Structures are given as C-alpha cells and as structure tokens.
Amino acid sequence: MLADYERAIAGSGERILRTFEAEAAHRHAIERAEMATVTEGVRAKYQLQGWGMACGFIVAMSGIGGSIYLIATGHDAAGATVFSVDLGGMVAAFIYGRRSSAAPAASQPNVERAEESTRSSRRPSQ
C-alpha cells in the first residue's frame, strides 16, 4: 500500500510513516502525563486519609482522656457520658467509613466499557 503512494508521489511513504510515528509518540506522551496525574491523585488521596485518621485518633484519645479525668475527679455521670459519646462517635465513624468506601466502587462507571463503546462508535458501519 505504501508502495502505491511512493509511486504516486516520491517520498510520500516515508512521510506517512513519520506522521504515524509522530502520532504514536504524541499519544504515548499524553498517556504518560495522564498516568502521572492519576498517580499523584492517588498519592494525595492516601495522604489525606492518613491525616484524617491521625486527627480522628487525637480527638478520640482526647475524649477518652477527658472521660478518665472526669471519673477520677468524682464526676462519674459526666465522665460516663463523655466516654459513651466518644465511643459512639468512633463506632459511627467506623460504620460510615465502611459504607462510604464500598459505595463509590459500585457507582463508578466501568472506564474500559466506556472506552470500548467509544471505539466501536468510531468504527465505520458495515
């Protein structure tokens, strides 16, 4: 096929190949940039989750420490209330965290299926 182009216009076969090579290099550069963006996003997500867990731990330990202090100073009802609220908050956060981490996976569209449907719509109809 390239030979036919070469016969029609001298050097056209080589120009076509250079164009295809340049397009492939361009596509690879775009894919590398997308992958770097995705990787950075995942890294930021886990870093944010780590900070959230650390802050949650500090708040929970402050509540438990406060309840121990209240009980030790003779405020049994207040200490028990603070401890119960703190424990309830930790349990609620654990349950909510489990549910919310499972929900997005089910609601996210299948990227491969979307890409395949896009590719199939570009194919010439037969």
TrEMBL record:
User: What stretches pass through the bilayer?
Assistant: 51-71, 77-97
Q: Which UniProt keywords apply?
A: Membrane, Transmembrane, Transmembrane helix
Segments of this protein annotated with the region Disordered: 101-126
An example of a Pfam family matching this protein is DUF2335
**Protein name in the entry:** DUF2335 domain-containing protein
Task: Give the species this sequence originates from.
Answer: Pendulispora albinea
